[in-house]
Structure formats: C-alpha cells, structure tokens
Amino acid sequence: MKNIDWQHLPFNYFKTDYNVRCYYKDGKWGDLEVSTSEFIEMHMAATCLHYGQEVFEGMKAYRGKDDRIRLFRIDENAKRMTRSAKGLLMQNLPEDKFIDAIKRVVKLNEEYVPAYGTGATLYIRPLLIGVGAEVGVRPSKEYLFLIFACPVGPYFRDGFKPVDIMICRDHDRAAPLGTGTYKVGGNYAASLTSLQIAHDNGFATTLYLDAREKKYIDEAGPANFFGIKNNTYITPESTSILPSITNLCLTQLAADMGMKVERRHVPVEELETFEEVGACGTAAVITPIRKVVDIDNNRFYEFCKDNKPGPVSTNLYNQLTSIQFGDQPDKHNWVTFVE
Ligand SMILES: *Cc1c(COP(=O)(O)O)cnc(C)c1O
Hints:
It is built from six helices and 18 strands. With 339 residues, the chain is α+β, with helices and mostly antiparallel strands. Helix 2 packs across helix 3. The longest helix has 16 residues, at 185-200. Bound molecules: pyridoxal-5'-phosphate. Pyridoxal-5'-phosphate binds at residues 58, 183, 219, 222-224, 242, 244-247, 281-282. Pyridoxal-5'-phosphate (PLP) binds at residues 58, 183, 219, 222-224, 242, 244-247, 281-282.
C-alpha cells in the first residue's frame, strides 16, 4: 500500500497510476486500453464540449479487515450508465465490459485503496463522452469511455455528522421531464449557482424542490433525500431525481429492519413531522441533516436535537458500511471482490 495519510484525505482528485479507456469508432467498441496519462486528446468540435453529450458514474472500492478489496452493486451502476447513455442518444458500453473496466482500474491501482478503518475509500469515476466532431446539434458518431480512480475521504468534511441545508427556490437542477434521472454533467452545471449560494450562506448543500410546483422535495444536491417517522422510511418519488443506488440499498435495509418503506411525493411541510431526515449517495453515504432552512418562506425545520445523528439513520449507516467493508455477511449479494 502507498504511504498516504488516509485519515485526512479530502474528497477530491488525487493522481493514481493508471486509468482505463475504450473507444467507439466506425460503429464498434475497441478493446480496453490501460493508460498512465492524466490527459485526453480530442477534437475541438467534440459533442461533449459543445452540447454536453456526457454521462458519468460514481462508485467506491472498500478495503476490508481481511485486506480484500470489495466493490458494491456495480451491476446497478452498469445498468444506470446504460440508461443515462440512452437518454442522451449515446453509444453505451456493453455492461460486461463496463464491469471488467472497473475491476481492471481498481486492480491496477490497488495500492491506492485506503487502509481499513480509516473511513477512506477508492472513488471510481467512469465517464462516457461524445468525441466526434459535429457543429450541428446531433449525437456524436464516436465515443470515449474512460475510468479513473482516486483515494478519497468523506464528501461532507465531517463524515457521519449532521449538516444544515438550504431549500432552493430560485434555481432548479432539472426540469420535470428533463435529464434529472440521468447522471449527466449538465445537471451539475445547472446546480453550480445554487450550490454556491448555499455555501456562501454556510450550508452544506441545497435541497431542490420539484421544478413545476415547488411543493415537493426532490433531492439534496448530489444525494437523494429520505425522512423517517413512525417506523417508516420515506423517500421522494419524482421525475427529476437521480435514482440513487445507496437509496435503493437503504430501502432494502430499512425493510430488513422491519420498517415500512414509502416512495411518494413528499411535501415540504411534511418536514415538520419527520423524526429524522438525511441525504444519501455513494459520496455522501448517509449524511444526517440537522436543519433545513426555507429562507424565502422564513421557516426552518430542526432535527438531531442533541446535535447527534438519529438512531434510525445511525443504524442504517452502520448496516450499510459494515456490508461495504465486509464486517457483516453480504446477504443480498451486493459485493464483488477484486482479486
Ligand atoms: C450520483 C447521484 C446521487 C447518488 O447516487 P448513488 O448511486 O447512491 O451514488 C444522487 N443524486 C444525484 C444527482 C447524483 O448524481
């Protein structure tokens, strides 16, 4: 293992030794290629640069106490990348090739998978971009799939500690029938202003509402939203949120714990009635929310009275991370080893 200060890694780019690439040209995908360069060369008229023909994924590799390296639900990432690619009329990489590429990039950079017990992980970033030259608006005929990996610490600096978030009423991340359900860079471009406003006001992130009526909760920046009350796990149903794999796991784990699970519209005012609320995603894992501030309506909703994560969120967090790091049996078959 590399000699890196695993405990203090930020969630940021970190140079590792190898990345893996694959090109689509003349109507077919080539072989996976290993590269040591951090740069790509592409045509200045590439569709990803001008018309945002870009989709990505995000997942982590976890080192267990047994030193084995685990990947988590990568078949779900593969399926989602296919969905996103189709949504932007892009050639998708065959899912078995996607999974090979992930295993390959992790194996090649295995010395960068952080030590067990530090909370750090190897973040894996697959990317698919249109690289063919076009000036008219149309899908590219050529694509580059690439995947790199960086050791990272928690996305929200303090890890499993409550954060404050701000409801955003002046900006939308995604339109009701737009690209919100696809993992595309364009949604993030649309979110930068509101994220900046949230940061400037001391909030960890933004809570987006449905763009049509501004009545229902959508999601929390790069993470899905959930609320807990009356032994029920509640998460928004919406046509503009990204279907989080972490959220999917939490609905299963909540059901395993004997909780009810509801996926439905969640009106903003319902925040009043929740016992716990949180944000979830690969990067955020579970981030408990202490306060939701609705500045424009001069209202706020408070949770975590003693400044500690609630018992259900804590339980879900422990269940999820103990499966990911191999401390608990993987009874749903979510883990893939990198040997
Ligand atoms: C990636 C992402 C999430 C989290 O999804 P996971 O599969 O749990 O990592 C949530 N919201 C948005 C907008 C995302 O891009």
